[in-house]
Amino acid sequence: MKWAVVSDFDGTLTLADVGDAILLEFGVFTAADIERSYAPGQSVEKWMRRGFSRLAASRPEIESFILRSMKPRAGLSAFSAFCAGRRIPFDIVSGGADIYARPLLKKWGVKAKTSFGRARRSGAGWDIEYADLDGGALPAFKAGRVKDYRDRGFRVLFCGDAPSDLRAAGLADKVYAAGRLKALCRAGGIKFSPLSDLRDAAAFIRKNP
Ligand SMILES: [Mg+2]
User: What is the CA angle 108-112-113, rounded to 5?
Assistant: First the structure.
């Protein structure tokens, strides 16, 4: 059976949550706002749309900030090359926005299929459109992507870090969890390996062909 990789972006393929870092850096949200956005039942899309609608920073200002301050998860470029070399689908499903994800993926040389919110200048801020969600919610969208691969006969390795990743983690064959997702998986009885270096995920796939 073939493997497919489905992964969150912010805080999973990056060390910090990039969307949160931008909204903090440009004074839109406080650390307390961000903490609240991760409470059970909160919608990532709603918080992102609310925050970015108040973000005055221009595209060059945003890019300059993220390109100098955001770090990839260890092993990211090697993992992307591993997946490409074995023709393993590498599918990034994210409630984040293209405006920051694309420049980072390009800088880090990551090749993947991606679903991000699309940011467009609107009034004094940015409007984020989630066309891929098709009116649904992010956790169901991520879980649906895992299910699609499984229905097509793949085993799915899922990587995530947040409450919106929990449903997808529950459907995957192998889970690598970082951040808040670790405690949520423990509480939900979902087996996982802690995510620190993505080369561990490549090694797992090599050992379980
Ligand atoms: Mg995340």
Answer: 145
**Phi then psi for 200, rounded to 5 degrees?**
-65, -40
Q: How far is the CA of 96 from the centre of ligand 1 (A)?
A: 8
Average pLDDT of span 126-145: 94
d(CA 1, CA 62): 42
What per-residue confidence (pLDDT) applies to 76? Answer: 98
Tell me the Cα Rg of the chain.
16
For a pLDDT cut of 70, what percent of the chain falls above it? 100
- Contact at 8 Å (CB) between 2 and 88? yes
The rounded Å distance from CA 61 to ligand 1 centre is 23
Q: In angstroms, rounded to a whole number, what is the distance separating the alpha carbons of residues 73 and 95?
A: 18
Residues with CB under 5 A from ligand 1 (ion): 8, 10-11, 161-162
**Which pLDDT score, from 0 to 100, does residue 78 have?**
97
- Cα 59 to averaged position of ligand 1 atoms, centre (Å): 22
Cα 16 to ligand 1 centre (Å):
9
Q: Round to whole Å and give the CA distance between 142 and 83.
A: 20
Q: What's the pLDDT at 161? A: 97
Domains and CATH numbers, the chain: 3-207 (3.40.50.1000)
Residue 49 has pLDDT above 80, yes or no: yes
Ligand 1 center from residue 165 Cα (angstroms): 8
